[in-house]
Specification:
With 293 residues, the chain is α/β, with parallel strands linked by helices. 41% of the residues lie in helices and 19% in strands. Helix 1 runs parallel beside helix 2 (45-52). The relative contact order is 0.15.
């Protein structure tokens, strides 16, 4: 098997179906399979998807994995990762649309450069604007501070202040970056064997940048590949009923990442400032949501 594609579904029938169809309706010039992991959906979406793709399931093209409990995005992906044996693995969000020869071109580029551990393509929103999260620097103290105080927004073309989302770089060029987004992350098998699976401490958010940090620490390259493109219906896969929990998990991911990778290398004053920044902004966000309600 050349490529295994992992998609996690949680009550997103229409989006997940569209994502799968964008892959299987295109003749791919390589061997691949799809692992569809359902995170304990209660809306009947997984049953409908099993009916829609019954033939593909019988043919072995699509493999269904049904979780009895939602243990998070990293946990769901890891279940499938343990079952794959392909040369490459692709983490693909259930709210994405594969365009043109995206998969073929991405694999070809990785084949040409054996030192690439992970590759992310150009990710655009439905209005064709760039999803800025698809190419990022690691959020060290300075990078995060410039983002938090608004300097990255005021000076997006600055190499110093625009590092958070690399806004000073041309989005139509290909280059090495610190991190790519988990909505589309193609990873080499040898890399996974070396660095391990996703960290399940991250329930949702942060597991992708943590994986990238470990991949780069193992001296593999991470590439933003602009020649391949997908559409990301960002936020559409998040249930409105879970907004409070998702907001907490977003800021908790920052807390976990900082403690795991930066805390030991920073003086206590920077750690205190970081904690105040993370949980202070979280508190303001929750207060704002409360007032709006």
């Amino acid at each position: 098997m050349d490529l295994s594609i992992i998609i996690v579904n949680f009550e997103t029938y229409d989006l997940t179906k569209q994502t799968i169809e964008s892959v299987i309706n295109h003749d791919q010039p390589f061997e691949y399979d799809i692992y569809l992991v359902d995170n304990a959906s209660k809306d009947g979406s997984i049953e409908r998807l099993q009916e829609d793709f019954y033939k593909e399931s019988q043919d072995g093209l699509i493999k269904f994995i049904l979780n009895n409990e939602n243990m998070g995005f990293a946990f769901a992906n890891n279940i499938a990762l343990k079952k794959t044996n392909s040369k490459y693995v692709l983490l693909l969000n259930s709210d994405t649309l594969i365009l043109d020869n995206c998969l073929e071109e991405s694999m070809s580029y990785m084949e040409a450069f054996e030192d690439i551990g992970a590759l992310g393509c150009k990710v655009v929103l439905p209005d064709n604007s760039l999803d800025k999260a698809c190419r990022r620097s690691f959020p060290d103290f300075n990078v995060s501070f410039y983002k938090m105080v608004g300097l990255s927004r005021l000076f997006p073309k600055s190499k110093r202040f625009g590092r958070y989302n690399l806004t000073y770089l041309n989005e139509d060029e290909t280059y090495e970056v610190d991190s790519i987004v988990g909505a589309f992350m193609m990873v080499r098998r040898e890399t996974i064997k070396e660095v391990g699976l996703l960290d399940e401490s991250f329930f949702m958010y942060g597991e992708d940048i943590d994986w990238c940090y470990r991949i780069k620490s193992a001296n593999w390259k991470i590439i933003y590949f602009s020649d391949a493109k997908i559409v990301h219906y960002k936020g559409s896969s998040n249930s409105k009923k879970q907004n409070k929990k998702l907001t907490y998990e977003f800021y908790n991911a920052m807390y976990i990442f900082y403690n795991k990778h930066y805390k030991k290398g920073y003086p206590w004053i920077k750690t205190a400032a970081t904690y105040m920044g993370i949980w202070g902004i979280y508190g303001l966000k929750m207060f704002k949501n409360y007032i709006l309600r």
